[in-house]
User: Fold these one by one.
Assistant:
Number 1:
Amino acid sequence: MKTIVSTPAAPAAIGPYSQAVRLGNLLFVSGQIPIDPAGGGIVADEIEPQTRQVLANLAAIIEAAGFKMADVVKCTCFLKDMEDFARFNAVYADVFQDAPPARECVQVARLPKDVRVEVSAICAS
């Protein structure tokens, strides 16, 4: 049975999609951008604070669904500029220290609200 997951601890969807969808022991988390859920604004323009906010938003949704960050099995990462790759990885590695999930990381022409990073996730329990 499909269940929609939503939490005020993460930014509301800015389009016709759910923050996440749970299907049995799987959770599909929509791409998160660096919106601060408290104020609704985009965090600083540097890649490190934007990445931290994106991963915090993912964690809030994942935890609201009853999962943990350790349950993440796959991430899709979008960067505005591949020159940010090493700095993005440094922050990402702090969150996924042990047994990091599978992932791909690609540069894209543009992201919503002209942010530097977006990450989606799939979890399994």
Number 2:
Amino acid sequence: MTLSPARGVTVEEFERFALLPENLGRKLQLINGEIVEEMPKLAHARISVRLIAWLLEYLRRSPIGEVFNELRITLEDESHNAVVPDICVVVERRGELGALGDNDPLPFMPDLLIEIQSEGQGDRHMRDLADYYLARGGQMVWLIYPDRKLVEWLTPTERRLLTLDGTIPYPCKHYSPEYAPRR
């Protein structure tokens, strides 16, 4: 659902809009000056919860980072983008998290970003988000296509399409095959 005027919205305008009482709790993003609202459904929520549970367990055993659900990312040099990935993991810059206030957006790109395709989101939108994340410092992106039971695994130099019998490589140099998700 598009909510923005034709001229394009700045990050400052978007932040004011998102903080209005009637907009609290809505999943709003600013993508190229356009305010977009996503409406995840049951399948999306189930996948998200399962992935977060798996990542939390991995990070409990190997405390190398933090996992977040729907955390707004607003990069300092961006004037028309404030994105909210479904899930993200911060590894390399986790020491910087302590300096942020509870209501601050993340000012840098996390290491792993996960997007789960919602109804109405096209493949092009998903790939555009992945390309944006990788171009701005993300190290790995997982694009999950529930209807097709596929995961697109992307890094700055590599892209793979995984099916249900595939294994998803862990998102950082601290990878341990012992914890790799398997079907």
Number 3:
Amino acid sequence: MEAYAVVETGGKQYRVQAGESLEIERLAVEKGAQTDLTSVLARSDGAALTVGTPMIAGAKVTAEVVEHKRGVKVVAFKKRKRKGSRRKVGHRQELTIVKILSV
């Protein structure tokens, strides 16, 4: 079994392995730079699983920023029947694509 880790970033948790790409919320790191994800909740070396309380002290996952992009547009529309009242707002999430280098 491969080594993996569970990391938290942007208020979400992701299960990551070395070599895979991941789409997370925008990081303030420029394209091509490496960053460390230090909020590691769990880590497995392939044989044993280590679970933090809530984080594992000293553990980190190294990732490289591949690209910054924006997600698909999500439209929120509210309408009150027979009142002529309507509200439409759109949102596009800022995203960063990272490649996991090491766990």
Number 4:
Amino acid sequence: MLYKSFENPNFSLLADITVIKVYYETHDDLLEYRIKSTDQKVRRTKLSALAKSRYYNFLKKLDKIIKYRFPKVEKKLVQLQEEIRTMPDLHERDWLLEKVTQALDA
């Protein structure tokens, strides 16, 4: 994988989120490490509180989806689905909802 550094920190973080989504879809073993490194990158990057909140919320909700699908905990997945729907500041809401729905259907 070729890593390209972006001047704009939002582009860099959005690229990291895209990589996280690819790792999730391909069940890559490095997903957990990529989530942790992106979390650290968000903490260290100079962004507005709102932007940081959106990135953190995405990472937290994805982490919960991963935890609740093995073993499947349907009640918690339904609660998580509602949290994702109602959370005001969240990157990739539609993608996260799709993944929760898939976990519920599995």
